[in-house]
Each structure stands twice: as C-alpha cells, then as structure tokens.
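Input structure tokens:
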C-alpha cells in the first residue's frame, strides 16, 4: 500500500503553478445535448469562465461563438438567429455563424466605417454521442494532441440524460469520477448497492491515450441494475482527460453505456452530466423509474462535493492514502503531462503503467 499527500505543484520555471489548479484549456468539454440547438434555437453556456453561444445553421453546421457583441457587450444569445446570422438585440448588429460582422444597420450610407474587420471569437465545436463538445482554447493547437471526444460503439435504443450544477472546483468534481472509495458511503442505496459489507476489490488498470482503463471484468449480478441485463455482465471503465468517465457494460448482445462528464463553468462551479444509453428497446419503459433514481445518485455526489469544497476552501490540502487513492494521483500526473507536453510542443506521453490495485468497497 502506498501513501502520499496531494500531488505537489512544481515551483520551477517549467510549469506555471496556477495551471495545475485550473482546468485544461485545450480540451473538449461537454456543452449540453445536441437537441438543445435543434430548430434554429441557440444555447448559452458558461465554459471555463467564458460565456459561449451555441447553435446550428440552416445547412446543419454547428457554431460556437463568444456570447458578447463587441459593440456594447450585449449577449448575442439574447438576440435573434435566422439560421444564417445572429442579431444583437441592443443595436441590431448582425454576425455570421463564422463570427464575422455582416451588418451595422445604424450606420449612415455616407459613413465610411468598415465593419467587415470586426469579428466575434469562434471556438471549435463537434457533435458526438448526442452531445455538443466545445474546445475553449484561444491559442494555436495541434488537434492530435487533444483528448478524443467520447463516442458510442453501438446504436442506442434509448437514452437518459441528467445535468446537475455542482458548487465545487473542476478538479474536486473530476476526482469523484475516478474515486472507488466513496461509493460505499455516498451511494449507499438499496437499488445500487444492496450489500452493506465492505469487500476486497482487485482490479487491473492500464494506460490508454490521455487516461487509463479498468480492464474488462465480470461483475456481480447482485445489483438490481445488472439483473436487468441477465447473465454476468462484463464491465470496462475508462477515464480520460479532461474529465470523462466511460463505463461500458456488455451482456451477450446487450449493451449499456453509462457516461459521466465534468464541465468547468467558472471558479468552483462545475456541470456534472450523466448519460445512460442502452441497446434494448424494452428498457425504454423503465425511464420514468430510472430518472428519479439517477437524480438521487447525482444529487448525492453534488451534496458531498459541495461540503468537501467548503472544507478545502478553509484548508486547501488533500491527503491521498493507499491504493484506492492512486487513480486520483494518476489524474494529476496525466494533467501535468498534458500541460508539459503543450508547453514543450511535443506529443503527450502517458506516464502510467499497467498496475493491479486493491481496495475495499
């Protein structure tokens, strides 16, 4: 068993210590469901301290722009979108989905002012697994160096999505995605954890691009959730930067995926999104029952994280102890490597190795 205090932040010139306390700037973050921008609708989101407006043009292409008119600072998301241009509701300035200013209607025909050079900041945006993903990075970047956007390896027959805002830092919230020790105490519910006995767990972990995976293993069928699949399901759990947990469950031809995403909104404000997908149409009948259970599960995380954040605000020190806390230490190692690779303009090199961990849960 190993022990360690919270990972130390380097004070040399190689890496700005503040960078280790902030979310990665060059990464894809979940910005809500793709259906939120259907039918010409716009969606305003807070992303890593930036206000962003999202939408889909008439031709189906997505856009993500800074939600601020450069004229007087008005939120463009409060205006109108005709499928081609966004109109600021303050003075009617129009901007294309490429961010370029198309029209300033208050200008006189005799005014020689050139508005064509005015533009709103654009951000990369893609769609995957039913969600919109935005990279808020403002500087130059190599797309190959950015962690991949989550995707599905089967066609879902149904999906259930819940979002919950957590008043806690991005790092603290992300650590809950890789922490196996809290489950027995935070999620102590009859439908998720019927057995109250702590048992020894032995799992093998190995590195994957920008993260690590708990390799596929047969799980217990004692949980009511797993009984729905029949047999002994095989479970694989992957974590990847910046804050993505991908749980994939297989039972014969049946597939279930339980994905969780952490999205930084601002200082000590994080959006926690849980998406449950399944391949069996019959499970759609259980959605009215599953939704409150999922909300209960996420709310338990929300409440404990907010209380823990209050403690860290008073004394910002964590003690990471034992093999059960090694995944939390790995998160900080992966984050540091991503920052150093970007600073040195080199490919990301996963610092982790294959390892067997033991803990009680």
């Amino acid at each position: 068993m190993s022990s360690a205090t919270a990972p130390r932040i380097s004070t040399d010139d190689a890496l700005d210590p503040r960078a280790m306390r902030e979310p990665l700037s060059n990464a894809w973050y979940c910005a809500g469901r793709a259906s939120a921008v259907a039918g010409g609708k716009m969606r305003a989101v807070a992303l890593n301290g930036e206000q962003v407006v999202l939408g889909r043009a008439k031709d189906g292409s997505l856009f993500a722009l800074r939600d601020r008119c450069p004229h007087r600072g008005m939120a463009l998301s409060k205006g109108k979108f005709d499928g081609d241009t966004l109109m600021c509701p303050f003075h009617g300035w129009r901007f294309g989905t490429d961010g370029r200013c198309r029209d300033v209607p208050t200008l006189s025909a005799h005014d020689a002012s050139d508005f064509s050079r005015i533009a709103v900041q654009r951000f990369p945006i893609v769609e995957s697994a039913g969600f919109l993903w935005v990279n808020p990075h403002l500087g130059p970047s190599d797309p190959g160096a950015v962690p991949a956007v989550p995707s599905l390896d089967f066609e879902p027959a149904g999906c259930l999505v819940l979002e919950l805002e957590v008043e806690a830092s991005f790092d603290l919230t992300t650590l809950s995605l890789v922490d196996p020790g809290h489950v027995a105490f935070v999620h102590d519910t009859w439908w998720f954890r019927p057995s109250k006995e702590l048992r020894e767990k032995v799992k093998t972990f190995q590195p994957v691009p920008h993260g690590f995976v708990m390799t596929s293993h047969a799980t217990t069928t004692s949980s009511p959730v797993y009984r729905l699949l029949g047999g002994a399901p095989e479970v694989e759990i992957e974590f990847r930067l910046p804050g993505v947990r991908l749980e994939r469950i297989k039972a014969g031809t049946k597939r279930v995926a339980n994905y969780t995403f952490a999205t930084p909104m601002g200082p000590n404000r994080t959006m926690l999104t849980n998406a449950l997908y399944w391949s069996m149409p019959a499970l759609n009948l259980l959605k009215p029952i599953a939704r409150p259970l999922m909300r209960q599960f996420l709310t338990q995380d929300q409440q404990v994280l907010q209380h823990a954040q209050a403690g860290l605000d008073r004394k910002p020190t964590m003690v990471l102890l034992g093999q059960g806390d090694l995944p939390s230490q790995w998160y900080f190692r992966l984050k540091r490597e991503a920052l150093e690779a970007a600073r040195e303009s080199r490919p990301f090199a996963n610092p982790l190795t294959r390892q067997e961990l033991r803990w009680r849960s």
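Residues 287-314 form the longest helix (28 residues). The first strand starts at residue 3 and ends at 5.
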